Amino acid sequence: MCRFLWSLFRQNIYFVIGVVLGLGLSLLLTPVVDNDCFFSVHFNNEESRILTSHKDDDYEPRINLAGKPQKAQKTPQTLIRPRYFSTELGIKDKLFIGILTKADTLVEYAVALNKTVAHLVDKIMYFIDAPSAQRLNVSSLRLPGIVGFTDTREILKPFHVLKYIIDNFLEEFDFFFIVKDTTYIRARELYSFVKKVSVSQDVHLGSPAVGQSEFCSLDGGILLSNSVLRKIQSTLDWCVKSAFSDSDSDNIGRCVLHATKIPCQQNIQGQSFYSFHLGNTQITTDNKYLLKDPTFEKAVTYYPIREPSAFYKLHLYLCKVAMMHKKMDIANLRHSLLNMSHFVPGGKKSVSWPVGNQPGNKPSNRFDVLRWDYFTEMHIYLANDFTNIKILSGAEKSDVQYVLNKSISFMEDKYEGQIQYRRLVNGYRKFDPSRGMDYILDLVFRDMTSGKEVHKRIELCKPLGKVELLPMPYVTENTRVNLILPVDASNRKDTVTFIQQYTKVCMEKKDKTFLMLVFFYDPHAPGKGKSDDIFKDIKDTAISLSNRFHKDGNKIAWVSIKVPSASSQYTMVHESLLDFAAADLAVKKLPLESLVLICRTNMEIRQDYLNRVRMNTILQWQVFSPIPFTEMNPSVVYNYELPQPSELDINKNYGHFDPLNSRHISFYAKDYWKARKSMESIIPIVRNDKDILNFIKNQEANITNFALHTVYSMFVRMSNLHVLRGIEPGLRLRYEEKSCQYPETVSGHIAAGIYHSCIASQAFSLGSRSQLAKLILEYQSASSVS
After folding, report:
1. Phi/psi of residue 21, nearest 5 degrees
2. Phi and psi torsions of 591, nearest 5°
3. Residue 354's pLDDT band (boundaries 50, 70, 90)?
4. pLDDT score of 609
């Protein structure tokens, strides 16, 4: 045992010596290292802390900022969203039809095909070689789109068509139908066919070509989906090189088969596509023997058409057949409805014909889509372009409540009292001018048996009443228009501009008009015959123009009104009442059969507007109060890049139609005096300047009780005449500063409503939302820099 241990020690003697020396040196050097170390660590029962021993250490940390912050290796792209949802969602039009035509068939065959098809599909185009198109002068044919190829080789024309469609319309349509111009197309049936086919499926559809089962006949038409054309896009070069057949059907079929591995289909998703070969059949409008062929009525295309008139004959014949089937369907539906038992609460059968309502409007494009408005029992959201939320009131609230009550009673009767109404969750409404008001209501009911809440969605419609044609009195555009223009000291400059326009548009063109200026003089301003009359230059211009054009019957006259000294206490309510003073004193100088138009100095005079005044104002029948297009604040709208135009153009960036402006109105003098005398006890008639105080002093009670403060409100409330109110593109107003001060001397909710309407009109005339937002951002940017 000892010998073994000795031998083991001898073998590892160097290792043992190293361990001993290492332990010895560590014990000897530990105190020295502890004294020279940078930190000393002390442990106790409560805490451990690290204390710095070298107080005079001059090391300062440094931050390396070179090349920082680092730039991204790949700059992120700015997301630009499309303008329309349809673009972002990839929504396409349904059907594109491409017609292969020739020089000898374009003029007659293509035109006949266009007249029977173009108005029923999304788009149709005609393809021909360019030399033939130039020779025939195709621009005179009134076809929607003719494309000419410089390559005149007939064998390659189908591939030029495919290339053109892929380059220009691949992102716009779901299905593409290619056919020759000697084929009649039942466009309605074809469109109905493709609407039932899923856009996610590859479609290579048609009638098999003669002697081929994998290729579709171009004579009968070939229907290709968008996905198939995308696959063909990368193989067009192969298709051109492999086009060796004299048959276009074979060449196209071989191309499609190579790209998609899909042979010609005749049946897809439960539908069958048929083409009818007419052979030598002479088409007439009474081909009853054709009905004996079971595929004739099922066919979507008919070929070959041997004469242009056959297109119209076949079209007429198929329309007669379709009409006959529709009449049979209506008769069968009428018979089934009359035999249907419809029980009412009294237990009697009651069915009236016709049952149902006019179908809703089908928009032809995204611009014709009717908007749904969201509402609750208390509010309606986004009712127009200027409000986010509005309280339901008046007729709108009564209408919603009526529809809601009818829906509740219908559901409770249907479930025989087993459910109880709790609340309205969502409400939607849409007005369709061809149908009426449609509603969708999401209602919550309580199940009386289980006690749980049950959600029900109800769709209902309030149809329009019976349309009646009302006889209207005869009017003519030859009637003289008498313009009344109120003028005060603040708008003298605009009055000069107005007279210049009036001279150019009316007097120089010998239009039958008469201009009456109504001058409002401040109590302390010189006027009425004095040498320093503030309106002297305007009066001199009026006299000069009247003398110049007196032979044509055009004349400018004026009436002067001295506003009483109490005007210092006038509010904007009283200022609007001065229109009655202007009308009373001006209209009395005109015959009773005179057509009167009250206008303003910031109006641009247009001949078409004056003609509409003549046509829309009818004696003892109707007055006309147009909604003007009002310019927005020029300091907001215009800049050095967009200067103010000399004539105001109707553009959303320049202005807006202001429904709160009712100060422009036309009427006949006889109708005015009849309405004016009916309210004489409320607002006395002004016969001279001093009478103005008579209706100013007592307006507090009148405004509170009657809300009669404009000529427009007088006709609405005190007259039996119809008031025509609508937007008028011909009435354009330049921007005008508005002063809206709350009428402290006039109480009542009507006065407050007048004030808030002024504030709203003032706010909407500042600028568009985008312009105001840009102005705010520029202001914030300038503030942050300063």
Report:
1. -60, -40
2. -65, 160
3. low
4. 93
Helix (H, G, I), strand (E, B) or coil at 257: helix
Strand order through the sheet with 93-100: 146-149, 123-129, 93-100, 173-180, 222-225, 204-206
Binned at pLDDT 50, 70 and 90, residue 253 comes out as very high
Q: How far apart are CA 360 and CA 666, in angstroms?
A: 37
Cα–Cα distance measured from residue 712 to residue 723, given in angstroms and rounded to the nearest whole number: 9
Confidence of residue 748 (pLDDT cuts 50, 70, 90): low
Q: Which residue from 430, 437, 427 is spatially nearest to 369, judged by alpha carbons? A: 430
DSSP reduced 3-state for 500? helix
- The string of DSSP letters for 734-770 reads ----------TTS-SHHHHHHHHHHHHHHHHTS--HH
The count of other CB atoms within 10 Å of the CB of residue 232 is: 24
* pLDDT tens digits for range 379-435: 999 887 778 899 998 899 999 999 999 999 999 988 888 999 999 999 999 999 888
Please provide the CATH number assigned to the domain covering 481-770: 3.90.550
- Give me the long-range contacts of 643-650 (CB less than 8 A, separation at least 24): 647/604, 648/604, 648/732, 648/733, 648/734, 650/729, 650/732
Query: pLDDT tens digit string along 447-470?
Result: 988 889 999 999 999 988 777 777
Task: Count Cβ atoms within 10 A of the Cβ of residue 177 and give its class: 0-12 exposed, 13-18 middle, 19 or more buried.
Answer: buried
The H-assigned helical ranges of 55-119 are: 85-89, 103-105, 111-117
* CA separation for the pair 368, 383 (Å, rounded): 18
**What ranges do the domains of the chain cover?**
87-313, 370-463, 481-770
pLDDT at 699: 54
Flag whether pLDDT at 99 surpasses 90.
yes
Query: What is the per-residue pLDDT across 640-667, written as a single tens digit (0 to 9) for each?
Result: 777 888 888 888 888 999 988 889 999 9
The arrangement of secondary structure in 87-313, i.e. its CATH architecture, is Alpha-Beta Complex (3.90)
Distances (CA, A) of 732 to 399, 494, 500, 627: 35, 14, 16, 9
Cβ–Cβ < 8 Å for 468, 406: no
What pLDDT is stored for residue 347 in this prediction? 45
Residue 743 has pLDDT above 80, yes or no: no
Check: CB of residue 676 under 8 Å from CB of residue 647. Answer: no
Distance CA 40, CA 46 (A): 17
Taking the CB of residue 556, how many other CB atoms lie within 10 A of it? Answer: 24
Closest CA to 212 of 257, 242, 268: 257
CATH of 370-463, one of 1.10.3210.10, 3.40.50.1010, 3.55.40.20, 3.10.450.10: 3.10.450.10
In this structure, the dihedral spanned by the alpha carbons of residues 148, 153, 155 and 156, taken in order and rounded to 10 degrees, is -50
3-class secondary-structure state, position 465: coil
Same fold, 87-313 and 481-770: yes
Phi, psi of 622 (to 5 degrees): -155, 140
The torsion region of residue 384 among left (phi > 0), alpha (psi -120 to 50) and beta comes to beta
- Token pair recorded at residue 190: 């074809």
Q: Can you give the pLDDT at residue 358?
A: 77
Contact indicator for 224, 175 with CB cutoff of 8 Å = yes
Identity of the residue numbered 528: K
Mark out the alpha helices in 47-186 (DSSP H runs): 85-89, 103-105, 111-117, 130-136, 157-169
What's the distance, Cα to Cα, between the start and end of the chain in Å? 97
- Give the pLDDT confidence of 677-735 residue by residue, as tens digits: 988 877 788 888 777 766 655 555 555 445 667 889 889 888 899 999 999 999 999 99
The helix or strand, by DSSP H or E, that contains position 302, with its residue range, turns out to be strand 301-303
Phi–psi pair at 660, nearest 5 degrees: -85, -10
Whole-number Å distance between alpha carbons of 250 and 235: 16
